[in-house]
Amino acid sequence: MLTRTLIAVAAIAGTPALAQDDHFTLPELPYASDALEPVISAQTMALHHGKHHQAYVTNLNNAIAAGDAPADATLETLVAEAGTFTPAIRNNAGGHWNHTFFWESMAPADSRGEMSAELSEAINAVYGSDEAFRTAFEAAGAGQFGSGWVWLIVNADDQLEITSTPNQDNPLMDVAEVQGTPLLGNDVWEHAYYLSYENRRPEYLTAWWDVVDWGKVSDRYAEALTD
Fold first, then answer.
1. How far from 215 is each of 108, 111, 115, 203, CA to CA, in Å?
2. Are 204 and 140 in contact (CB under 8 A)?
3. Which of 47, 80, 158, 175 has its CA 20 to 30 A from that of 151?
C-alpha cells in the first residue's frame, strides 16, 4: 500500500512545488475564480484558495523551517508518512495536498470530461447505479462530524469505496482508518461552502456534482488500476 500511496500522492503533487528556497508554493487555480459559479461563488473561491490554501502552504513551510521535517522532504513523503511527523506537518501537508487535488477535480462546463465506461461500470457494480453512488457519497459527506473530507477511493482490493476523513487527513496517509487511492474528494469544511449555503451542507454536496470533472476522475481510476 505504501508504494501505491507514494505513486498516488506524486500524481497530484508532480514534481514538488518548490520555490528556489525549497519551500512549497501555492498552485494557481486551473480556471478563473468565477468559473464554477453558481455552485462555488467567486468570493468563496478567492477565500478558499487565496486565504485557506495559502495558509496551509505557509504553515507547512514554517513547520519545515522549524525543523519538524527535513528541508528536502517531498509532499508525497509528508503525506504518506504523516503519522511520523508533527501535527503541524500532518495538518498542513494534508491541507496542501487535499486542496490541490480538489481544485483539479473540478472544471468549468466547457472543460469537463465525461465519465469513462470503465468507471461507470465499476460504480454500478458496487453501488447499483450512479444515483445510488451519489446518494451514498452525499450521506458520507453530510455525516462527517465537524470539518473534514469525503472521498471516493480505490482500496487495497482494487474496489471502489466511499470513505471520509477528519480535518485535513486523506486516505493516502498512514494514519487513515481506510486507506486507498483517491479518485474524488469533496471538502466539507464550512469555509468551502458557508458563504453560499450557510449551514446547509447537504445542499452543497448535491449541487457540487455539477462542477465535477468526470474525465479527470476517470483518468485517476485508470491510473489507480495500473499502479
1. 12, 9, 6, 24
2. no
3. 47
**pLDDT tens, position by position, 121-164:** 999 999 999 999 999 999 999 999 999 999 999 999 999 999 99
The number of C-alpha atoms within 13 Å of 98 and in the hemisphere containing its C-beta is 30
pLDDT tens digits for range 12-57: 443 333 333 548 999 999 999 999 999 999 999 999 999 999 999 9
**Max CA separation in the chain (angstroms):** 50
Instruction: Dump pLDDT digits (tens) for 194-207.
Output: 999 999 999 999 99
User: Could you please report the per-residue DSSP string of 33-97?
Assistant: TTTTTTTS-HHHHHHIIIIIIHHHHHHHHHHHHTTSS-TT--HHHHHHTGGGS-HHHHHHHHHHH
**Under a CB-based contact definition with an 8 Å cutoff, are residues 201 and 188 in contact?**
yes
Report helix, strand or coil for 164.
Answer: strand
Cα–Cα distance between 133 and 162 in angstroms, integer?
A: 9
State how far the Cα of 196 lies from the Cα of 116, in Å rounded to an integer.
Answer: 31
Task: Identify the DSSP state of 154.
Answer: E
With beta carbons less than 8 A apart as the criterion, state whether 57 and 24 touch: yes
The total number of residues shown for the chain amounts to 227
